[in-house]
Specification:
By secondary structure, this protein is α+β, with helices and mostly antiparallel strands. The protein has one domain. 48% of the residues lie in helices and 14% in strands. A four-stranded mixed sheet has the order 2-1-3-4, covered by helices on one side. A hairpin with a 2-residue loop joins strand 3 and strand 4. The longest helix is centred in the last third of the chain and has 22 residues. The chain is globular, with a radius of gyration of 14 Å.
Length: 132
Amino acid sequence: MLSEIIFIYDGECPFCNHFAQLLELKSSIPSLKIMDGRKNISTLTTLFKQGYDLNRGAILIKENEILHGSNAINFICTQIKEPNDSLLEFIRVIFASNKRTKILFPVLLVARRLLLSIKGRKWQPVNERIHF
């Protein structure tokens, strides 16, 4: 059994937001904690300083390991065992394959950036201009 899993997503991104809601409500992953990175800038800043940029994808923390981007999405989808939602099942089937996730993930990032631009939001909540 895994200890706490923290899934950090971009709360301004409609795709990310919907996926996080599905995970929280329908995934049945034990010990899963969902965190909107934009509402937790101090955590996001700490992760950014370690090389994990929310602009490049979701961040997942499990035990002493941090997964980022396609690796985070792939891992979380492999943990979904019996989703009680057809959309979550579809996402699980697609992204439980590491190969498919690596191929499709860049498309998701472009779609996220496009949606954030349309909404007039910043792509990157934390950036290199942070004063350390």
